[in-house]
Design a protein that fits this description.
Elements lengths: L2 H34 L6 H7 L1 H11 L1 H8 L1 H4 L1
Helix pairs in contact: 1-3, 1-4
């Protein structure tokens, strides 16, 4: 495997993991706040807070294709 592709793959996966970690922490804090305040958890808010998780998952799944596209010029 090309070292440039390997480095790009690591950076893309790190970026996607950061997105997912941010989303999980933000969603967890919302649920914890709702639990402590004994208020109702709203589905719409949970879906909005889960958007970074979905973006991170999509980037993680497509990371190999993105790394190939980014390092295409270095292979030649």
């Amino acid at each position: 495997m090309n070292p440039y592709k390997k480095a790009a793959l690591v950076l893309i996966r790190l970026f996607a993991s950061g997105f997912m970690l941010f989303g999980f922490i933000y969603l967890g804090l919302y649920l914890f706040k709702s639990y402590l305040a004994k208020s109702e958890v709203q589905t719409g808010s949970c879906l909005l807070l889960a958007i970074p998780d979905v973006i991170g998952l999509v980037i993680l799944i497509k990371s190999s294709a993105i790394a190939n596209r980014l390092t295409q010029d270095f292979d030649e």
